[in-house]
Amino acid sequence: MTIKDVLNIGVKKRLECENPTNRGNLECEILLCNILNKDRIFLHTNSNLALQDSTIETFFSQIERLKNNYPLEYITKKVSFYSMEFFIDEGALIPRPETEILIDKVLDLIKKHNITQIYEIGIGSGIISIILALHCKNLKITATDISKQSLKIARKNLKLKSKLDSTLEKRIKLVQTNLLDNIAFDKNALIVSNPPYINNSYKIPLNLAFEPQIALFGGEIGDEIIRQIIDLDSTFLCCEIGYNQCYLKKYLSHYKFVEFYKDYSNLTRGFVASKV
After folding, report:
1. Is residue 165 a contact partner of residue 133, using CB atoms and an 8 Å limit?
2. Hey, what's the torsion of the CAs at 64, 99, 179, 150, to 10 degrees?
3. In sequence order, which residues have a C-beta less than 8 Å from that of residue 247 and are 6 or more positions away?
4. 130-182: per-residue pLDDT in tens?
């Protein structure tokens, strides 16, 4: 079969599920590009190229995984974020576009207050710390996570992106711990976090079932970990939260400046807090 034939069949198969997607064409092209190690332009300019049976078999097996709500990013081991490509795998939450806003807010704080020390709680795949360090050459970061798997993925991304800046692995220190436990913490610094903030009883969408639950659920109410982070009492704090957690403003009353920001869907997505 040719590339064109395989893609046509793949799209039809992709739509044969309980929750069909309007991204079927794109997803199929991304999968085939990943298998062939080619870009999408290659697919369209070589649509009549015959594919090997092994390639076709792999492609259709991956389509079946998509139909069962397995994330595309975990199949390709790639995720695009902040105009860059990162490694991703099971064990770390797949970065969402909304978290790019969190990074922009942190960069604004760094510039405004000349911040040189940051602590990231819950580093996940490492994308936040890496992007911040790439943008701010004198920035030092201590990044923590309770998960060994997440730290392994973050370490791989750190090594990959060190090709862009050889100082990254020296400036970003990875530590396995809960929050900032057993870390000599400078309260004058900035804490950034995209913590778990979903309440334990919430029924998550099927596609989230494959992502690490420890990175999603924040407790019986959902805000327990966020409150623990606030209690660390850093001078600067930038944190992602749930759309219905604006009530946390009362818990931030000891901060001089507090701003809640919205995401691309106009829903509350996080806050910035400063004591100066």
Report:
1. yes
2. 30
3. none
4. 999 999 999 999 999 999 999 999 999 999 999 999 999 999 999 999 999 99
| 250 φ, ψ (degrees, to nearest 5) | -65, -35
What is the C-alpha separation between 207 and 192, in angstroms, rounded? Answer: 26
pTM: 0.93
How would you class 257 by CB atoms within 10 Å of its CB: exposed for 0-12, middle for 13-18, buried for 19 or more?
exposed
User: 3-68 with 93-274: one CATH topology?
Assistant: no
- Structure tokens given for 155: 């370490």
Kindly state the DSSP code that residue 15 receives in the 8-state scheme.
T
- The tokens describing 95, both together, are 């970065």
CB 199 within 8 A of CB 177: no
Q: Nearest to residue 88, comparing CAs of 49, 130, 56, 124?
A: 124
Distance CA 80, CA 127 (A): 10
User: What is the residue extent of each domain of the chain?
Assistant: 3-68, 93-274
Task: Indicate the burial class of 10 (C-beta count within 10 angstroms; 0-12, 13-18, 19 or more).
Answer: buried
Q: Are 269 and 98 in contact (CB under 8 A)?
A: yes
Q: What is the homologous superfamily of the domain 93-274 according to CATH?
A: Vaccinia Virus protein VP39 (3.40.50.150)
- Assigned fold of 3-68: Helicase, Ruva Protein; domain 3 (1.10.8)
Cβ partners under 8 Å of residue 204, min gap 6? 198, 216
Which pair of structure tokens corresponds to residue 72? 């595309």
Residue 188 tokens, joined: 């004058």
